[in-house]
Every structure is written in structure tokens, then in C-alpha cells.
């Protein structure tokens, strides 16, 4: 079984569904991750691979925070152009629990319309009280059980 330590320090991603059935993608090489991601990490890994080669379906809007950072827009723009809200823990050392919105899709992908592998991975983490379209950050503390690596 894959554990948090197995993916620590990598650009591996996890997925979640919000109150509006929109899908978010989260990157945090050393950040805390929801424990439920590891209930079916095979699906998460397959969804990550699928996303890496998925064609764009919409435009991406970079967050003000991301634009001000001067960082390359490549990864969050690619994720958002596939209809997903892109979040990052920046870089998440020490098990940071806060993820920041990096980019939003103009037309968000809804979970019922997503490819099966994205639906399967996203359903592992549900945020019924959060709307990705209205947040600039999400703190996992108290929302879901989390796991932290060694970073």
C-alpha cells in the first residue's frame, strides 16, 4: 500500500470534490494530505497520469497570489485549463495544512461529467462545506483526517 512517505518530495497530486461538485487538484510535496487519499492511491496516481496528458477544455485564470509570486504559470495553468481548481501548499515543509488557490478554470469541470478515473480519485476527498470558486486558501486542519510525512 502506498503511504504519504512514498510520495513525499514529489510533485504527486491528490484530488477533491467541493460543495458544487467541482474538482480541485492539490500539490504539496511536504504538506499534509488527507488520509483518505491512500485508501485508493492507485486511482489517484492514475488520475495524476491522466491529467498530465489531458487536453485543455477551458481557459485558466491565475490567482493574484500566483501572479505576484513571479513563479512559472505552467503547472497551475495546465491544471485549470482542464477544468480543475489548482491548489498548492507552497512548499508545505513540516506538514503544512494550508493549500493556496493558484489558478481557477473559466468553466469548471463538475465531478459527474469528469472522466471516470478523475471521478474515482476526486471522490476520495469531499469538502461539503467548501466552494473552490469562493476561496483563496483551504486549511485541512479539522476538515479531514490528515497524514504528514517526514519533510
Sequence-ordered SSE layout with sheet pairings:
Elements: H1 4-7, E1 13-18, E2 23-27, E3 33-34, H2 41-53, E4 60-62, H3 64-69, H4 74-80, E5 85-88, E6 98-105, H5 116-122, E7 126-127, E8 137-139, E9 146-147
Parallel strand pairs: 1-7, 2-5
Antiparallel strand pairs: 1-2, 3-9, 4-6, 5-6, 6-8
Quaternary structure annotation: single chain
The outline comes out as globular
The number of helices is: 5
Low-confidence stretches: none
- Tally the beta strands: 9
Strand content: 15-25%
- Residue-averaged pLDDT: 91
- Mind telling me the C-alpha Rg? 14 Å
Please write the string of helix (H) and strand (E) elements. Answer: HEEEHEHHEEHEEE
- Distance between the terminal alpha carbons, to the nearest Å? 20 Å
Which class of secondary structure composition applies to the elements?
alpha+beta
What is the share of helical residues? 10-25%
Taking the sheet with the most strands, its summary is: 7 strands, mixed
